[in-house]
Each structure stands twice: as C-alpha cells, then as structure tokens.
Design the sequence.
C-alpha cells in the first residue's frame, strides 16, 4: 500500500513527523512539500529537527494570493498523484496546501485521510475555515482530535469514516520537549531566565492583513512592562514595515526571527505567559501548563478556554494589557486531546483502509 502525504506549512511538518514514522513501518509513504513555507526557518529546519525524511517531491510553490497559490499547488500535486498512483492521500490541518491536496485527490478518485478533522471556528471570513469545511466534506477518513470535533462533523451530516484519535501534536510535543531540554540554548542566547518573560506570536491573516488590528496588538505590547519575546512571521514583518511610523517604541519587545521547533518549544515552556493567534501554540501552551492569551475573537480549541487556561481577548489593546496583568488559570488541568498514541492510531487505520 502507498500513501502520499502533502505538507506545506510548519504546523503540518510538526503533525506529519510522528505519523510519517508510524506509516513507514507498515507501508510506502511519499512525502510532498508544496513550498507554502519556503524559507529555512519556516521549513527545512523543521525537517531536520523532527527527523522527517527528505520530501520525495518539493514543488517550490512559494507565496501568492490564495487563488494563485492554490491553483499552482493543484497542478503540481496532480502530476505527483498521476505518477505515484497512491492508495491514499493524507492531508493535515487547514492551509491552502490542504485544500489543493484534497481537491487534486478527489478529481483523480483517490481517497483522502484528513488529520485534524472537524475543527470549526464558525467564522467563514477565515480562509482556514473554508479550507477545513471543504476538506472534511471530501475526505473518506476523518481523524478528529476531540469529541467536539466529532460533534461538529455530525452536525454537518458527516458520520462515516470519522474517528476520535486524539491530537497528533501531543505525540510531536512529547518528542520535541525532550529534545529541547537536551539541545536548546535559546534562553542563554537571548539572555532570558525561566518564567521572567512573555512569548508572543502573530501570524493569522485576520491580524496581519488588518493593519488596525495589528497596530492595536503592537500598542498593547508597548504598554506591557515585561520582556516580550516576539518571533516575527514573514507576513507580519511585511505589514509592520509598511506601518513602521505608527508603531510605538517598546524597550521591552525583543523581536527575533522565526525559530525552529525545538527552540520554540523551549521558549514556550519557559515563558510566564503566551500571547498568540496560533491554534497549535494554544494547545502547546495548555500541554506545557503555561497560561495563554489568544489574540483572536474565537478559537477552534474551545476546550482550552473551557478549562480556564486560555482567554480570548481579540485585538483590543486594553483587553490584552488587562489579561496579561490579571489572568491566572485554575489549579485543575484536565487531560485534553489524547494520550500520545495518536500517530499509531492514524497509521493503523490508514493501513486497514477503515
């Protein structure tokens, strides 16, 4: 049996790493990198750190508008599928790479397995939400990270091929945490000590493409009197450069380049608090026991909010500053999203074709 795995963005590299290790024990996997994240800090360093095999195909699509990028990926992925003739196509998450992969497979009648199925923000203005919904309605195997995700699919009439397997990022984080403790020196390099700084990430289009929202977030950062480590996503940097004259100076803001996964996990684990619009980092903050403030108006990971460890504040400066000063999670920290055996479950179900 042969499976083609399609990835293109750093969260997908993280999710694919443990699944690829399990898949290759029992079947042939062909890895396709679309090139959606294409610089070294956003791409190749993740393959090296996570032990992911070199992709058999690197399409090198790069950036562009949603239509242009997705269309170019469709052309490239279709050629791969016609050459490889796989039994399955695996896609991850909610990016343009995900959508292009599922559409190319569907046109060629190749069944699709979607890892991280059933997530919903219920905000159709998000490109990711459209990608999720379309992918789930096309896929034959739907690997959900939680019961809420299963319920979301059932509400849309999707019940066949649905499996609550847990979140594969639990598996990935367990591996990366051990590596970070042994290998990362990021705190020393930045002159930081544990629990004495905040970590911030901003990359979602709703924040980076809306200059008013991004400037509000930057104003909040300037009003916070603690060190804030801010790995700046390329998309975010472009918007900040266009509005540089409007951004208040902050002596406590430490802007750095995007980091590899091992160093990023170390920064997350040692932070006093995390401010982010990343879905993956919301979960990692929860698993690492670090309070999280989410710079969005809604989240797919509602369980972290219900548990009291994640607070939604949007992009209003006053709410962000107030949350940093006052937010304290409860003592309870229930187990969420699985037991670290998700990759094994996914590989087993793909191999069985269930």
Sequence:
């Amino acid at each position: 049996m042969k499976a083609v795995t399609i990835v293109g963005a750093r969260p997908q590299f993280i999710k694919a790493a443990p699944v690829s290790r399990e898949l290759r024990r029992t079947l042939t996997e062909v890895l396709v990198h679309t090139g959606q994240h294409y610089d070294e800090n956003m791409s190749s360093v993740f393959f090296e750190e996570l032990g992911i095999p070199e992709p058999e195909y690197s399409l090198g699509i790069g950036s562009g508008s949603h239509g242009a990028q997705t269309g170019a990926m469709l052309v490239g992925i279709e050629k791969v599928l016609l050459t490889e003739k796989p039994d399955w196509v695996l896609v991850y998450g909610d990016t343009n790479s995900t959508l292009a992969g599922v559409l190319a497979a569907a046109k060629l009648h190749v069944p699709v397995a979607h890892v991280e199925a059933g997530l919903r923000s219920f905000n159709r203005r998000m490109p990711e939400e459209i990608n999720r919904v379309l992918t789930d309605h096309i896929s034959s195997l739907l690997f959900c990270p939680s019961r809420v995700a299963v319920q979301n699919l059932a509400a849309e009439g999707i019940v066949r091929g649905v499996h609550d397997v847990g979140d594969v990022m639990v598996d990935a984080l367990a591996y990366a945490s051990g590596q970070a403790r042994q290998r990362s020196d990021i705190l020393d390099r930045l002159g930081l000590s544990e629990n004495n700084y905040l970590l911030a990430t901003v990359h979602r289009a709703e924040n980076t493409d809306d200059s008013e929202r991004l400037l509000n977030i930057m104003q909040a950062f300037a009003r916070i009197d603690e060190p804030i480590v801010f790995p700046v996503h390329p998309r975010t940097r472009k918007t900040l450069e266009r509005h540089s004259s409007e951004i208040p100076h902050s002596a406590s803001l430490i802007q750095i380049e995007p980091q590899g996964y091992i160093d990023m996990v170390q920064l997350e684990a040692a932070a006093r608090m995390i401010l982010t619009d990343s879905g993956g980092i919301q979960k990692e903050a929860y698993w690492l026991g670090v309070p999280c403030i989410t710079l969005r108006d809604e989240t797919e990971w509602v369980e972290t909010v219900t548990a009291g460890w994640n607070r939604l504040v949007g992009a209003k400066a006053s709410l962000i500053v107030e949350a940093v000063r006052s937010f304290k999670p409860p003592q309870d920290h229930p187990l969420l999203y699985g037991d670290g055996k998700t990759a094994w479950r996914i590989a087993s179900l793909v191999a069985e074709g269930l």
Observations:
- The chain has a mean pLDDT of 93.
- The two ends are 14 Å apart (CA to CA).
- DSSP finds 16 helices and 13 strands in the chain.
